[in-house]
Design a protein that fits this description.
Number of helices: 17
Number of strands: 0
Order of helices and strands: HHHHHHHHHHHHHHHHH
Structural class: mainly alpha
Largest sheet: none
Distance between the termini: 26 Å
Helix content: 55-70%
Strand content: under 5%
Shape: globular
């Protein structure tokens, strides 16, 4: 589909394909990275003979994937808050927290229950050792969103717990987001604290200012610059309809920044962008450019990208459950004698099975629980809001824009 403004859509939109593709790429990078780390821990020399940059682009972009998640999340939460309440000064703090709880809590609490059961059963790979605080300390950290701080101080938790570091960053931001909206009241004023987060992000990741390698990756400020950039993107697009030439410039520039960040990461490190923390900011900026284009054009992805779209649509469920698939399939791989010829099959099996599990979990548990909790709090489908502004519609259009599950990430 050409890059055109969405003035007379042919159908009611239920997803932002561009956003789902970005999330699909992000979760794909996370899956590839976690399989790679297991293979390295088992000393499987599967990357021998491959160009270093190709290896880096395929299996070492997990952290970049999380940064892309943060940018998408900031945009969607801000956009839907504006559509739901009309302005930042009208954001209902109580309702905001209830909606976040409905989306995040059911699957998170189920995951914690499963992880606790596996710990108590002394299943290898799931036991939280006393040096990191034991089960009680891990549960407290997960429920109060400071898994990242716990790991920076005491060391890494088992993989099933470790993935919750990103949720700690994201939800800590949203703990204060509605309060900041009511405090600053005007969108132009909210730009200031968001811009401060963007400026501080690289410093939090910089080797010169942060000597703790775990905290460089997992710190609150190190992830909040991407969320803030997503928020700023939503505020910028508020009541704006960008001309076609501007959309093309954003699309080309955003794609170029993503390609540079993901496919030339070694060069970026040689230039010092990794050591000073700017590589992640550049990636987030490119992601936000593409988000802006997706939101304004309603671009439709070709069918060949349907599997990647599916991963993006279930990215939250896949992220919280994929570790079980990685560990199970990796165990089978080890029991088979670590055959090198099966390594590509291992990667593909993890991606496919993780996507399938995410779909099952979403359909049978997280989405029904989300809807039930929203109804209990007085919400309903007619109040879900939308990412796309009705001002993008031509006068007389009767199409209703809904953004489906995009709105709840």
């Amino acid at each position: 589909m050409p890059l055109t403004e969405a003035r007379n859509p042919a159908r009611t939109w239920t997803r932002l394909d561009g956003v789902d593709l970005l999330r699909g790429l992000a979760i794909l990078f996370v899956l590839m990275n976690h399989v790679n780390m297991r293979l390295l821990s088992a000393k499987v020399p599967y990357t021998g003979g491959l160009p270093p940059q190709l290896v880096s682009s395929l299996v070492w972009n997990g952290q970049f994937g999380v940064q892309m998640f943060f940018a998408v999340s900031g945009f969607l939460i801000t956009s839907t808050s504006l559509r739901r309440w009309g302005s930042i000064s009208s954001v209902n703090i109580r309702d905001f927290y209830l909606l976040r709880f409905a989306r995040i809590a059911p699957l998170l609490l189920l995951l914690l229950a499963v992880l606790s059961g596996l710990h108590l059963a002394h299943i290898q790979g799931f036991v939280v050792f006393q040096k990191t605080g034991g089960l009680g300390r891990a549960l407290l950290a997960a429920l109060t969103f400071h898994i990242n701080l716990l790991e920076a101080r005491r060391g890494y938790l088992p993989a099933g717990w470790d993935i919750l570091w990103s949720l700690s960053v994201e939800e800590m931001f949203y703990l204060f987001f509605p309060v900041a909206c009511r405090l600053f009241r005007r969108e132009t004023l909210l730009v200031l604290p968001l811009s401060i987060f963007v400026v501080l992000g690289p410093f939090a990741r910089s080797h010169a200012f942060n000597h703790n390698p775990v905290w460089r990756e997992y710190s609150y400020l190190g992830g909040m610059d991407a969320i803030a950039l997503g928020c700023l993107t939503a505020l910028f697009l508020r009541r704006r309809h960008l001309p076609r030439i501007a959309l093309w410039i954003l699309a080309v520039s955003g794609a170029a920044l993503l390609v540079f960040s993901l496919c030339f990461s070694i060069r970026a490190d040689l230039w010092g962008l990794g050591r000073n923390g700017l590589n992640m900011t550049i990636l987030a900026a490119g992601t936000c450019m593409l988000i802006a284009v997706a939101a304004q054009t309603q671009w439709q992805a070709p069918r060949i990208l349907t599997p990647l779209l599916g991963l993006g649509q279930r990215s939250y469920e896949i992220y919280l459950t994929h570790i079980f698939i990685v560990l199970a399939l990796f165990s089978l791989f080890i029991n088979a004698g670590k055959p090198l010829r099966y390594v590509p099959a291992l990667f593909l099996a993890v991606i496919f099975t993780s996507g399938l599990l995410g779909e099952v979990v979403a359909r049978t548990y997280s989405e029904p629980m989300n809807r039930w909790l929203r109804r209990r709090s007085g919400d309903g489908p007619e109040k879900l809001g939308t990412v796309v502004s009705p001002s993008h519609l031509r006068a007389g259009d009767n199409q209703k824009y809904k953004i489906g599950s995009n709105i709840v990430e």
